[in-house]
């Protein structure tokens, strides 16, 4: 019962935060700018105030006040995003997440609470991500970005070892740092002049990690194995695209052979050491099987395409089944060889049967392997393949649309889940594939009524699964259910079938209901839940950090309102498009006539100030005079009516330079993009005496 109460509190808090995010992103026009700022401030006060209040009232459930304190920092981030929406500053900018990460970092250092550690890590890496991959059509990857990614990857690696040594206690941060280090170091190994060095560095690091954690920690070993497997396969495709030839594919076959031979010796060695964990061996065999299978399949199809061998799909299917699947299933070859050849045959067979539309034959092949193979991991994999082949077969024979096909698959998988009760491993395969099929129903283009029905069904099933499996202690099931639950929340943000404001009201209602139910169950059960309060003895310092957030929001509102009141008005030509921001809702992305400067000597990126003058049509034009990195391109004295506008050169080529001014995004009410798209011709911008611009409105 205690677990039920905690989960209900968590869901209630998440719903309230989600409601606020959706409401702000909807850009509802019935409120003025200052009224929206007041709403954002009220949200912050609500979470921080509730945290302090419940810390005094619920002495045995400090976990709730801790969650609310973290939610307060999240609400501050939503308020920062709202300010960007009100004053048309793009939410996907790294500056938003940089500002947001500062109080999260201060709370982390001051309270040493795991929730703040995780939030800070996520925000800092979002800052880095949007700096390296700016959400602008003019951003590009450079060698400098590669070295930045490498440095941050090493920093994550050092953080990982710091946590392992016990200097910081946070398991979520441990895994976040490990995953981030792998992702960033993998990024450096592609498409740059030092990729060979970065590849060798990562491979050596990966080898050391696999060797170190094979016997010790299965979870870390699994993560390293997954990244290693993915990296090798992606690298293979990169090399194949660059050096495609018959020699390359023969070499790929040789590499697969050497990999299998080496893995056989290693498996025999591990078998003699009882300290090796069963799951570690299983993951190792799975990684080798995946890599070798991909290598062999790529080699077979690559050689066939190069030599233009006229082999029918039926012949290819028979060869794969007779010479690969059946022998590997019936014999007791070493595990890496056995399963690599088996999976190679299955992949070739499924590909061939899919092309020639005789996928019903694959059912017999899969059933043959499934019946003879007793290992849980293999049966789990082949069950998923069976479901995939079922979808292919139904699509070929019944010519079902995406909606009908997914609906049939959900029903079939649901029946299979009930029939496979107590079948360890296989039932989880049905559970997983069923959730994936049901989630896919939400993502396809359907009518509003169908969206609501499938959303409700998915929400009820996911929520029920979290509660039931949590109570039963089935960690794999309830964690998977919780992941799908959060996936639903994210998916609904980008779902255009119904309005954000309507979803916001729904989540607000759900949040209130869940919190009331949690409070009722808590009082009725009289639980004494022991948890440490991060407010204990630190209220003054925490209040100081909260005040810093309030001061920053106040300063931003004051400075922007002052600029809007006192700034000089300019009118610029533009061309819009219509996407959706990560946090702030719909916006039009603007490309001005001044976004590309012609006849310049700029050959680098950096700050630029251009001189604007009003023409006879009342539009402000670029005069050809600019100051780049503090130096004017020509002698200049300001004339009456001149307006100086600051920007940043993002790229340059020949005698042209691409510039952004921080006024490239105009946020609009949800669903009004088509009303703006192609109809507006100019933008009204306020420019301060320091050269900073704010986009005020668009004009036809």
TrEMBL record:
It comes from Rossellomorea vietnamensis. This is DUF2157 domain-containing protein. Keywords: Membrane, Transmembrane, Transmembrane helix. The chain crosses the membrane at residues 7-25, 37-54, 66-87, 93-110, 115-132, 138-161, 173-190, 196-214, 221-241, 247-270, 282-307, 313-333, 345-372, 392-419, 426-444, 450-469, 476-494, 500-520, 540-558. The keyword Ribonucleoprotein does not apply. Residues 9-112 form the DUF2157 domain. The keyword Membrane applies. Pfam families: DUF2157 (PF09925), GDYXXLXY (PF14345).
């Amino acid at each position: 019962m205690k677990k039920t109460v905690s989960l209900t509190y968590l869901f209630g808090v998440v719903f309230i935060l989600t409601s606020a995010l959706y409401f702000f992103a909807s850009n509802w026009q019935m409120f003025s700018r200052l009224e929206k700022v007041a709403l954002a401030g009220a949200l912050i006060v609500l979470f921080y105030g509730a945290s302090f209040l419940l810390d005094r009232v619920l002495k045995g459930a400090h976990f709730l006040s801790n969650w609310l304190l973290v939610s307060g920092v999240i609400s501050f981030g939503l308020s920062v995003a709202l300010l960007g929406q009100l004053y048309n500053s793009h939410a996907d900018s790294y500056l938003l997440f940089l500002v947001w990460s500062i109080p999260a970092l201060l709370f982390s250092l001051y309270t040493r609470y795991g929730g703040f550690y995780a939030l800070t890590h996520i925000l800092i890496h979002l800052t880095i991500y949007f700096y390296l991959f700016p959400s602008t059509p003019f951003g590009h990857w450079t060698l400098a970005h590669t070295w930045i990614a490498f440095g941050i990857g090493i920093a994550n690696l050092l953080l990982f070892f710091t946590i392992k040594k016990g200097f910081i206690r946070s398991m979520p941060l441990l895994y976040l740092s490990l995953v981030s280090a792998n992702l960033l170091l993998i990024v450096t190994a592609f498409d740059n002049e030092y990729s060979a060095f970065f590849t060798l560095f990562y491979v050596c690091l990966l080898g050391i990690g696999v060797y170190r954690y094979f016997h010790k920690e299965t979870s870390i070993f699994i993560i390293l194995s997954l990244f290693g497997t993915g990296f090798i396969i992606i690298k293979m495709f990169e090399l194949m695209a660059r050096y495609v030839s018959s020699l390359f594919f023969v070499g790929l076959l040789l590499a697969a052979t050497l990999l299998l031979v080496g893995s056989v010796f290693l498996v025999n060695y591990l078998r003699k050491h009882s300290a090796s964990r069963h799951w570690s061996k299983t993951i190792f065999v799975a990684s080798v099987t995946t890599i070798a299978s991909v290598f062999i399949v790529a080699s077979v199809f690559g050689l066939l395409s190069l030599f233009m061998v006229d082999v029918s799909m039926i012949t290819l299917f028979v060869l794969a089944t007779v010479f690969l699947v059946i022998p590997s299933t019936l014999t007791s070859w070493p595990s890496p060889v056995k399963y690599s050849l088996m999976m190679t045959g299955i992949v070739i067979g499924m590909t061939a049967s899919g092309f020639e539309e005789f996928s019903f034959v694959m059912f017999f092949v899969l059933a043959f392997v499934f019946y003879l193979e007793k290992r849980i991991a293999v049966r789990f994999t082949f069950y998923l393949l069976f479901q995939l082949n079922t979808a292919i077969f139904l699509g070929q024979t019944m010519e079902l649309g995406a909606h009908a096909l997914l609906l049939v698959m959900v029903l079939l998988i649901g029946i299979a889940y009930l029939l496979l009760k107590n079948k360890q491993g296989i039932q989880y395969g049905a559970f997983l594939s069923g959730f994936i099929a049901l989630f896919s129903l939400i993502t396809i283009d359907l009518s509003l009524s169908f969206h609501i029905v499938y959303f409700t069904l998915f929400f009820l099933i996911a929520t029920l699964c979290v509660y039931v499996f949590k109570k039963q202690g089935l960690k794999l099931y309830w964690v998977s259910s919780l992941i799908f639950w959060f996936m639903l929340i994210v998916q609904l943000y980008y779902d255009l079938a119904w309005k954000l404001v309507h979803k916001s009201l729904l989540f607000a209602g759900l949040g209130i209901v869940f919190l009331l139910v949690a409070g009722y169950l808590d009082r009725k059960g009289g639980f004494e839940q022991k948890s440490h309060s991060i407010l204990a003895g630190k209220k003054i310092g925490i209040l100081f950090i909260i005040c810093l957030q309030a001061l920053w929001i106040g300063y931003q509102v004051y400075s922007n309102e002052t600029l809007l009141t006192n700034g000089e008005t300019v009118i610029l030509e533009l061309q819009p498009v219509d996407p959706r921001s990560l946090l702030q809702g719909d916006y039009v992305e603007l490309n001005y006539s001044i976004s590309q400067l012609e006849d310049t000597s700029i050959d680098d990126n950096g700050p630029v100030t251009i001189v604007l003058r009003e023409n006879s049509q009342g539009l402000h034009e670029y005069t050809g005079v600019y100051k780049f990195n503090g130096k004017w391109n020509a002698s200049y004295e300001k004339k009456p009516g001149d307006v100086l506008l600051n920007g940043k050169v993002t790229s340059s080529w020949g005698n042209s330079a691409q510039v952004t001014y921080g006024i490239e995004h105009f946020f609009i009410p949800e669903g009004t993009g088509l009303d703006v798209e192609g109809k507006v011709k100019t933008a009204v911008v306020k420019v301060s005496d320091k050269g900073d611009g704010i986009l005020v409105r668009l004009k036809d």
